[in-house]
């Protein structure tokens, strides 16, 4: 007959025939089955959000606008304009349309300001007098002194470097290449019999009468820029999460302050300690970029680093306090199932412009990641300055957590007090444990 082993540590096998061993094995399998099921649901329900943000993003490119400004008014301007109009109208193409030159009283300087201030994603300007200068060179029979740069295309890579790489840059350049290739044939028809003489005296006026310049007015020119405005945001959230776990362990499991303090004092600890922790951690995080010589002084001078530090601090508070709030009711056991969606819903809206994503992703304008990234781009690359609004949205997230942390703490404290009352008689003066300061 089988003799059960004593329940001694380090002495059992997996498939023992005892009732206790079978019970523990079943419990172990049941827990792992439940965890696997929850992770599976997370994969299908949450990770699909990020997959969706990158799936068929090309069909949203038509939501990006591009300007065609003809300062020339001649055959050169008409040729370039038509080249762009031939490359629009599809969902996978930028929405190119003509804008009157009269809207830019200061000339092409106004176009630069408009691109920086995000009035358009891209613009092409055909220079004033492009046709008349070409005609004058033809009449003189000489290409000496003739500048064939008839157009300038404008875009700001730092607004979103991925869109610039994948579609804004290519769709800005392709119509110009088509115009440059097509214009020599148009020029040959215009010249008629006089083309023979020009082939000898000024062949450039026949074979390459027009060319263009690409003006990337806000280049993404900092090597560690992606580490700051994209991947680094994930690290910022992970660091906040680690701080939340450490704070929870110290408060609940090690010191017992969770049940020792009155409700008011507990809330004070729960709000004040993360603020102080993130103040230092955000400084350490910000100094890392300074060590790698990131130029924080481009937009705001020497205040740029301090602004970035405060942005990182508020970002950690917005991200970390949300986790701190939910860990109250989810506990460390289930908080990872909030962390994953929290990362995914944030990271899904910062790789490509929200404009090209499905309508569902419009929520991204209110996410911490998006607003931190926008403010970072302004500080580092001098893109559109909405730093005040970006801070305001982060403050709103912090404010929500300042409400939910006391609310969830009160709910958990109430359950704890009721359980304690059921377990043992409670003195009359203990009735004030719920909600007292």
TrEMBL record:
The keyword Transmembrane applies. Keywords: Membrane, Transmembrane, Transmembrane helix. One of its GO terms (cellular component) is membrane. The keyword Transmembrane helix applies. Residues 38-402 form the DUF3533 domain. It comes from the Eukaryota. Signal peptide: none annotated. Pfam families: DUF3533. The chain crosses the membrane at residues 31-53, 227-246, 267-294, 306-327, 334-354, 391-412. PANTHER family: NITROSOGUANIDINE RESISTANCE PROTEIN SNG1. This is DUF3533 domain-containing protein.
